[in-house]
Write a structure and sequence with these properties.
The protein has 67 residues and is an alpha+beta fold. The protein contains 1 helix and 4 strands; from the N terminus they run ββαββ.
Length: 67
Amino acid sequence: MTHVLGCHIEMTRTPGVDYPIRTTYQPDEPPLQLTVDHLHRIRAAVAELGDRPRRYPLDDLILWPSD
């Protein structure tokens, strides 16, 4: 495996700031490729969320579980 790809990033390059919902032009989105560091941060965030999934913004991505 060489890459893990995110999807629907919807983030600007400003840490923790995403584009408004339904924005169709997102010129400054980060790349889809997730680094090993991203995966460690995602795992830690999921552990912190526990059994209460909710929207959880990180600097360069948002965890947003579906209902």
